[in-house]
Amino acid sequence: MNFSNTLIYWYLQNNRELPWRKTKDPYLVWLSEIMLQQTRIAQGLSYYLKFSEAFPKVENLANAEESTVLKMWQGLGYYSRARNLHFTAKYITQDLQGVFPSTYKELLKLKGVGDYTASAIASICFDEPTAVVDGNVYRVLARYFGIHTPINSTKGIKEFKALAQSMIDVEQPGTFNQAIMDFGSLQCKPQNPNCEECPINNSCVANEKGLTKILPIKEKKIKIKNRFFNYLVFVTEDGTTELEERKGKGIWQGMYQFPLIETAKEVAESTLITMEAFQQKVPSKSKIQLYNKDAIVHKLSHQHLHTRFWIIKLKENTKATIHWYDIEKYPVPVLISNFIEDFNKKSHNFF
């Protein structure tokens, strides 16, 4: 039994029962694939169910407000995925009359759709033999064939794509793609792979040469940037506060946050209150209180946000028009959401 047949046979015995595997609707498959990028199935499943119920058709998603989409996406991270999802839904509805592209090349033209997602949709929904390559596939192929080329190098990306394409079962490409991904996730795990019960262990180079802890190889990560956020949380006597929408191309575009002052390093209150940005945002004679003495470190892929929340108590503020009871209606990053939840539990200390 060859590599492809063995994995498909394993998959038919061990595959996970997931809602998006019960359909070949390209909209629902696309929705699941976008959500599962850099997200574990255990986390993404509830979001998929929520979205597919609220937006059963691509037209429903296209007609939603972006703020609604972002609010429903809250907590899933990498919010550019949500914005691209909404943009593409509108494009398919308005420009393509609601008809999903049916080929790998056409799918690649959609915003937010790369090689992996296009390959998945094309193979699963339209039986086009285009191989998917994700972290699971990289791991299985690198170990099985004993490949030392870094998986995140230009050479590695091309090499593994070509190899995966040569291994695909052209008669059932969608099943093969799901099989190799599930095999990497459940059997050939990053840590502690189940090599003893692996159906291809007799021909696996990594198993034979003791390379399972070494392969696959990744080039060194880029340097992590540290940023220092100071959020100004206004609390008026009427129980209102202020939120602002994040603009530009940076993180959390379209999400809401408390007024922010970013500094080059962690600053004390005595320094913060002398800054021009602070004086422009905060009325004089306001009471300021540091909410968290130790900065909350929120880790993103390429940056760490060292965050402190400053409670600004004042009688009134013309910009503080949002009541605390309405604040949960706004899409906010999980960092802000966690603060709001904690603050609400202790609000009697501040109101």
Automatic annotation (TrEMBL):
Cofactor section: [4Fe-4S] cluster
Superkingdom of source: Bacteria
InterPro entries: A/G_AdeGlyc_MutY, DNA_glycosylase, Endonuclease3_FeS-loop_motif, HhH-GPD_domain, HhH_base_excis_C, HhH_motif, MIG/MutY, MutY_C
Gene3D superfamilies, A to Z: Helix-hairpin-Helix base-excision DNA repair enzymes (C-terminal), Hypothetical protein, domain 2, Nucleoside Triphosphate Pyrophosphohydrolase
Keyword list, A-Z: 4Fe-4S, DNA damage, DNA repair, Glycosidase, Hydrolase, Iron, Iron-sulfur, Metal-binding
HhH-GPD domain location: 35-186
E.C. designation(s): 3.2.2.31
Record field: catalytic activity: Hydrolyzes free adenine bases from 7,8-dihydro-8-oxoguanine:adenine mismatched double-stranded DNA, leaving an apurinic site
GO MF terms, alphabetically ordered: purine-specific mismatch base pair DNA N-glycosylase activity
Cofactor note: Binds 1 [4Fe-4S] cluster.
SUPFAM superfamilies linked: DNA-glycosylase (SSF48150), Nudix (SSF55811)
PANTHER family named among the record's database cross-references: ADENINE DNA GLYCOSYLASE
Function: Adenine glycosylase active on G-A mispairs. MutY also corrects error-prone DNA synthesis past GO lesions which are due to the oxidatively damaged form of guanine: 7,8-dihydro-8-oxoguanine (8-oxo-dGTP).
Family named by the database record: Belongs to the Nth/MutY family.
Name of the featured protein: Adenine DNA glycosylase
Gene name for this UniProt entry: mutY
